[in-house]
Amino acid sequence: MADLAVRLLNVSYASNGTQILSGIDLCFRPGLFNVVLGPNGAGKSTLIRIAAGSFAPSSGKVLYGDIPALSFDATTLARRRAVLSQQIELSLPLRVEDVVLMGRYPHYRDAPSIRDKEIVSRALDLVDMAGRRHQPYPTLSGGERQKTHLARVLAQIWDDDDDRDERILFLDEPTTSLDIHYQIHLLDTARKFLARRCTIVASLHDLNMAFDYGDHFFLLDFGRLLCEANGAGSIPKELIERVYRVRAEMIASADQIAYWRFRL
Amino acid sequence: MSALRQLPYRQIYLALMLLLAMSLIASASIGTIVFTPLDIATFLGEALGLSPTGPDVLNHNVFFLLRLPRVVLCGFTGATLGVSGTLMQGLFRNPIVEPGLTGTSAGAALGAAVVFVFGGTALSFASPLATAGVPLLAFACSFATTMIVYRLSTTFGRTEIFTLLLAGIAINAMCNAGTGFLSYIARDPQARNITFWNLGTFTTADWRGALVVATAFAACFMLALHHGKSLNALMLGEEDATYLGVEPDKLIFRLIVINTVMVSVATAMVGVIAFVGLVVPHLLRMIRSADYTFLIPASALLGALLMEIVDIVARLVIQPAELPIGIITALLGAPFFLWILILQRRAMGGSYG
To answer: Which CATH architecture group holds B19-347?
Structure first.
């Protein structure tokens, strides 16, 4: 499974009679930071979970390369695909490094190798949590917990120099409830992985943050894909205003970086 | 306690092994007839053919036919219950679960009682058919009760604690009624002894029972050791465990089978011994870690250790008679259970509004 392009073919999903996704056709761009946008209830989270192979769509298909996502062996897939989910158990009675080591579980059977432990250390370094590796997880702040889980998913798809396989990282609203420092830190760290044969698929709420970090955009509303755009500038302003029910205004700063200001 | 938390797992295993070895020697020597460690060494030497058999045939027989099988049965039963408590707490993702609560033990006792009572002369326990029949039926009933409690109390990978307690109460009551009825109509004095079923005892220990329990434990323990990682991953929730390559449905089914096999075999031989499975993983979490890759092996050692100690107490308190071991485990375990329940209530405080 060298080719890990994730494609959704006519994916629909309904739960208890409510249509959540309808006829989604898309292909996440390999090697890029893909962002799924849309207001609350648009179906972003469901789309990401279905694309990550968590459960089957009601109709349609999810392909990884040419192979249906659900036909993979769970461990094989787990070595190549990691997911940072929205709600994570708050009361893990473990230490930080034990949580990060979970990311290596798909890679060893009974005991972690020296390399697995080394990857845990490097992942902790990458998220600036090396100093807290022995601390009990429940004593961490919300931001530190999210960093710990980021280290866990990065350790899961950590690349070997001799391993040319592609990987994919799904981030389901990873910055929700984080302060600005942790938001920037998380997205910066994730972006570093693009250079390491990794594709990123993230759902984000903050549009300026999304346009800053994203390469390729998918805009959802009421479970439908309204627009796909390469580069933030290609999303029509009117569409954003209609979907998010706001008025948008572009503000260009002196150094030519554009920011959006939103008002009701 | 905090110094212990930094120790490598291996040192804790080693410490537990040393304590277990000491408890085994103590357990082998204490009783109506006291054997000094020197006696024990002599007997073992004789058995291994290192020295000629001494003149004391009575003591020799008491040691080899009564004391030693009891020590072995007791150790493996404790290990079984300790590991079982760990597996079930991981599976239900709740620290109050143990085989006595989920109906696993009561179901096994009922299954075993059916064979003992209806087997009668045709299936007397000495016959090979009954040696297989007791564990088999114990397993079947035990598996059914555990599955019922699991399905009732766990939806979408979350265990509803009150449903669990209530389902456990109902299932235990049904099984106990069945076992009580069977004891009432039984002719065999052994099967009539209802305290044997509900309070557990090692007085009937023999080599066959000890070896059956040891074999079931060894096989299940080897399989259980591979599931430490998966139980850790399950702490993240079923969905996130899936992303780490765990298949929750398969895992749950496998663990319930492994757990039920060893618990039902042990229960068929010694009756229901409650609370050991509850206490053991808790003590280990307190002294070291909630990491299941540590808890599974450590709970086997601590379970065996605690059970030997409790058995020694059972033999000493009302000499020359002895207490059913289940009375002691319940006496110590029930307050512990209440304490954990209070801690859980406090932790969940907010959600009670």
So the answer is: Orthogonal Bundle (1.10)
User: Which residue has tokens 């207001």?
Assistant: A39
Chain B residue numbers with beta carbons less than 8 Å from the beta carbon of A54 are 239, 242-243
Q: What is the pTM of this model?
A: 0.88
- Contact status, residue A65 vs residue A1, Cβ threshold 8 Å: yes
Strands (E), A75-215: 81-84, 167-172, 198-203
Interface residue of A46, A79, A87, A94 to substitute, partner B, most B CBs within 10 Å: A94
Separation CA A255–CA A259 (nearest Å): 11
CA pair distance B124, B126, nearest whole angstrom:
5
Identity of the amino acid at B96? I
* Residue B312 CA: distances (Å) to CA of B23, B189, B300: 9, 26, 19
Single-letter amino acid, residue B336: F
Q: Do A78 and B243 touch (CB under 8 A)?
A: yes
Taking the C-alpha atoms of B174, B175, B176 and B179 in order, what is their torsion angle to the nearest 10 degrees?
Answer: 130
Query: What is the DSSP code (8-state) at residue B95?
Result: T
Contact across the interface for A98 and B289, Cβ inside 8 Å: yes
Contacts of residue B10, Cβ cutoff 8 Å, sequence gap at least 6? none
Helix, strand, coil percentages for chain B (3-state, nearest 5): 75, 0, 25
Asked if B90 and B269 touch (Cβ cutoff 8 Å), the reply is no
**C-beta of residue A229 within 8 angstroms of C-beta of residue A216:** yes
Whether the upstream peptide bond of residue B320 has omega within 30° of 0, thus cis, is yes
For residue range B183-225, what is the model confidence (pLDDT) as tens digits? Answer: 888 776 666 666 666 778 888 788 888 999 999 999 999 999 9
Closest chain B residue to the Cα of A86, Cα to Cα: B240
- What ipTM goes with this model? 0.92
Sequence-ordered alpha helix ranges (H) in B62-101: 68-92
- The pLDDT tens digits of the residues spanning A102-150 come to 999 999 988 899 999 999 999 999 999 999 999 999 899 888 999 999 9
CA proximity to A174, closest of A157, A189, A196? A189
